[in-house]
Write a structure and sequence with these properties.
CATH architecture of the largest domain in chain B: Up-down Bundle
Structural class of chain A: mainly alpha
Number of strands of chain B: 2
Mean pLDDT of chain B: 91
Structural class of chain B: mainly alpha
Number of domains of chain B: 2
Order of helices and strands of chain A: HHHHHHHHHHHH
Shape of chain A: globular
Radius of gyration of chain A: 22 Å
Strand content of chain A: under 5%
Radius of gyration of chain B: 25 Å
Distance between the termini of chain A: 69 Å
Helix content of chain A: over 70%
Largest sheet of chain A: none
Oligomer: heterodimer
Number of helices of chain B: 17
CATH topology of the largest domain in chain B: Formate dehydrogenase/DMSO reductase fold
Number of helices of chain A: 12
CATH class of the largest domain in chain B: Mainly Alpha
Chain lengths: 369, 450
């Protein structure tokens, strides 16, 4: 048919479980990944700002905190990026591979960019630990992480719109000039900045600070809240921009989904407004810890709901492109059970390991490793 | 093959090889490091051996930086690369083995968390907790290897899978255990080789020699296990595959040479390890570096041989490296390769590709580049259109032999390292014409001479 993009044939090999199971696992693991992405992006950006702050005594410790958190967060983000990537390939392999082939230079380049950003974060962390300045590595890592996010967004948008493949193959810029590209990227970035801001405040006042630390803790928390507030305000604008940038058919499709699609979407927006209210209410972060806590919870809620919307939006995109598929299934329940047991076991062992690492502190005279 | 196609100047195969070799060297170190460090830290705690403890500590940051950063990203990198170079095969493997990968991922998750915790808690927690962390790390890292080897082995020796399509038949394939054995040995050898540098930083001479000796012992043990693993592995390969590089007249001379070189490298590595064990005071930067290069070389050589004997398959006996399935040979000969490879005529940059070249992109470009690795311009330089057509016809006739072979008959294709040509007569002519045109100036001279 003229004008139609030829889709690769569906893989004749059956998938080893029912699609809903893959959707569920995908969503759950992806949610963890996105928390990590937010922390990493937000830490890199706020860490850069903090390290550029003229008041060094104020900025450096914040930058250091972000760098310390970030090295852990990056490891977990990458780890939790792998699982959704597996499940995505089971469900939408032909769309995903096609998009990555078309954008291969950027897609493979992503790895180098990510590795450089990661090592730069470590470099910043060790520099800050040694009392040295680290604005440059932090700023570079922030830029590189932004590039990673941009590539992911571009690949995602391309994969669900086979109609754009040919143009993108002819010129990769076509993939980046998707109208939804920029607002979608900004949506992610602002979420990261918001989370990093709230987390910073929360960490500063989570426990009532000692009298001599009160001023520092309050200043830090106020800084975090202000940034989070600003980012959330912007987020409302960007959210609207994103909504109107989504192709008409797709938006209509989302609306036609009824309560199943509209409920998460509207509740997500409502949670965003709620977040704004609680952030705006915080005057004295130390006295008003509960508002901060609410803000953190509402952020989590808004994020989860928006992830559901994102997932549904992908399906609408794919439906509109008539690229959906009902693959044959041949469930491997035995192997799935092995996975489940391994996963639960490993997660439990992680908890044990982390708890013991955090609590085992031999008293004076006791031997340490 | 019905996916969009991208040709890489260095060749897709070489691209995968580069990423894969970087990854395997680091990831095997991460596994072996876990095993070795767990044992050495235990010994250090039991005996109150301070220099040994310091050695373990000095090795820990590098383990973290290599395994959680480089190892993780390059692992994803292999994934990205094979997805781009062999999308159909990747899809097929994912459909069969996604739960195995997910299981490996669960262990990798534990590996990352324990690595971070272990490195962060030096001087903070009790020795007992610290030992628990490194043991959990070693356990997780080793199990991730045990899981992934099932899939790696499957790609080469699918065992009974083609007829049963059962996960465990594919996973517990003939080269599974030999592969685990070989890899475990290499893991230990690589870990010892890396840690040798940390041992050299010990100030006390006597302690330095003692540590070097211990590591030399670990290296020797690892290489012995690896050699045994390789030996068993070769014997687990199917007869026709063994013929490719064993026997008096190997079918793939290059592969046989590669194998011999790898053995030589293994011998060098083993001699170095023995030398350091016997005369630990001779251990020094250059020796350690040479040993590290040699151990990496053994692994790289193994991976090359493994990839080499897999040619022309990407999944043995099922899918050729260009994505053509054995089961679709006849259909494609009838309907034409371009009926399936719909993207072959569309090139990055937007040029419309003529038919002959499109057939090349669909069927040959997964192995042959234009001018680089296995460059077609070079290979086809002596071909005119008639010669090329004869060659391609012979290559198409191979199709029947591959099918017979896959069905279990003892038939030998004429070109054992290349997939058969599939496609219509028109496509064959077009490709022949294009191959000949690659060599336009020379053909012109030849015809003038005639």
């Amino acid at each position: 048919m003229p004008g139609e993009t030829p889709l690769p044939a569906l893989d004749p090999m059956p998938i080893p479980g029912p699609p809903w199971l893959f959707h569920a696992l995908w969503l759950v693991t992806f949610a963890v990944h996105v928390v990590g992405v937010n922390v990493v992006l937000g830490s890199a950006i706020l860490g850069t700002f903090a390290s550029l702050d003229r008041d060094r005594a104020f900025g450096r410790p914040i930058a250091r905190l972000f760098a310390e958190v970030s090295t852990w967060a990056i490891a977990l983000t990458i780890t939790f990026g792998i699982a959704p990537l597996l499940f995505l390939q089971v469900l939408h392999g032909r769309l995903f591979y096609s998009a990555t082939v078309i954008l291969a230079p950027a897609w493979l380049g992503l790895l180098l960019v990510l590795m450089a950003a990661y090592y730069l974060t470590y470099a910043a962390k060790y520099r800050l630990r040694a009392g040295k300045e680290a604005a440059l590595p932090l700023a570079l890592s922030a830029l590189l992480f932004l590039a990673v996010a941009a590539i992911q967004v571009a690949v995602h948008l391309l994969s669900v719109q086979p109609g754009r493949w040919e143009a993108a193959l002819a010129s990769p810029w076509a993939a980046f000039s998707d109208r939804a590209f920029l607002p979608r990227l900004f949506h992610f970035v602002l979420a990261g900045v918001t989370l990093a801001g709230i987390l910073l405040s929360w960490l500063a006042v989570r426990r009532a600070p000692a009298a001599e630390d009160r001023a520092t803790a309050a200043a830090r928390a106020t800084w975090g809240v202000k940034i989070a507030l600003l980012a959330t305000l912007l987020q409302l604008v960007v959210g609207l921009w994103l909504t109107i940038s989504v192709p008409r058919d797709v938006l209509l499709g989302l609306m036609r989904g009824g309560a199943a699609t509209m409920a998460p979407f509207t509740l997500g927006i409502a949670a965003g407004f709620g977040l704004l209210v609680f952030l705006a209410r915080v005057r004295d972060p130390i006295a008003d810890r509960s508002s901060l806590r609410r803000a953190l919870e509402l952020f989590g809620l808004a994020m989860l709901l928006m992830l559901v919307t994102r997932h549904q939006l992908r399906d609408v995109y794919i439906d509109v492109a008539k690229a959906g598929a009902a693959p044959a299934t041949a469930a491997q329940w035995g192997v799935f059970a092995i996975f489940l047991v391994s996963f639960v076991g490993c997660a439990a062992l992680c908890v044990v390991a982390l708890r013991r690492s955090a609590t085992d502190r031999p008293g004076p005279g006791g031997a340490t490793a | 093959m019905d996916y969009p196609i991208r040709e890489f100047a260095v060749g897709g195969g070489l691209l995968i090889a580069v990423v894969a070799i970087l990854h395997v060297v680091v990831s095997h170190f991460a596994v072996g490091g876990g095993l070795a460090l767990a044992v050495l830290e235990t010994a250090a705690v039991r005996r109150g051996d301070r220099p040994m403890r310091d050695l373990v500590k000095r090795s820990s940051t590098i383990l973290l930086l290599l395994s959680t950063v480089f190892g993780a990203i390059s692992g994803v990198g292999i994934w990205f690369t094979i997805g781009v170079v062999h999308p159909a095969a990747t899809s097929s493997l994912i459909h069969t083995f996604v739960w195995a990968w997910a299981t490996e991922w669960a262990f990798f998750f534990l590996e990352v968390v324990t690595a971070l915790a272990w490195v962060a808690t030096w001087e903070k927690v009790s020795p007992k907790t610290h030992l628990l962390l490194i043991r959990l790390y070693a356990f997780a890292a080793f199990l991730s290897l045990v899981v992934i080897q099932g899939i790696l082995g499957f790609m080469l020796t699918p065992g009974r899978f083609p007829s049963t399509a059962s996960f465990f038949d594919g996973f517990l394939n003939p080269t599974y255990l030999p592969g685990v054995l070989f890899r475990t040995g290499v893991c230990l050898a690589l870990a010892a080789a890396w840690m040798a540098f940390a041992a050299l930083r010990e100030e006390d001479r006597a302690a330095r020699a003692r540590l070097s000796r211990v590591l030399g012992g670990v290296g020797t043990l690892g290489l012995a296990v690896a050699a045994a693993g390789w030996f068993v592995w070769e014997r687990a390969l199917p007869e026709p595959v063994q013929r490719l590089f064993l026997g008096e007249k190997p079918l793939l001379a290059a592969l046989a040479t590669g194998r011999t070189h790898t053995f030589r490298i293994l011998l060098v590595a083993a001699l170095l390890a023995l030398l350091v064990t016997a005369l630990p005071r001779l251990q020094s930067w250059p020796v350690a570096l040479l040993a590290l290069v040699a151990c990496s070389g053994v692994l790289a050589g193994y991976e090359r041989v493994r990839e080499g004997v897999r040619k022309p398959w990407v999944i043995a006996e099922q899918m050729f490296s260009n994505g053509v399935l054995v089961t679709e040979i006849d259909a494609l000969n009838e309907k034409g390769i371009l009926s399936k490879a719909v993207w072959a005529t569309k090139e990055a940059g937007g040029r419309e590709v003529p038919t002959g070249e499109a057939v090349f992109r669909a069927e040959c470009s997964s192995c042959h580049t234009r001018d680089g690795y296995l460059g077609i311009r070079q290979i086809a330089s002596a071909m005119d259109a008639d010669f090329a057509a004869t060659f391609l016809t012979a290559l198409r006739d191979d199709g029947a032999r591959w099918k017979a072979r896959a069905a279990g008959q003892d038939v030998k294709p004429d070109y054992p390292f290349m997939p058969p040509f599939v496609g219509t007569d028109a496509e064959l002519e077009a490709l022949a014409g294009w191959l000949a045109s690659q060599n336009a100036p020379r053909t012109a001279e030849v015809s003038r001479a005639r």
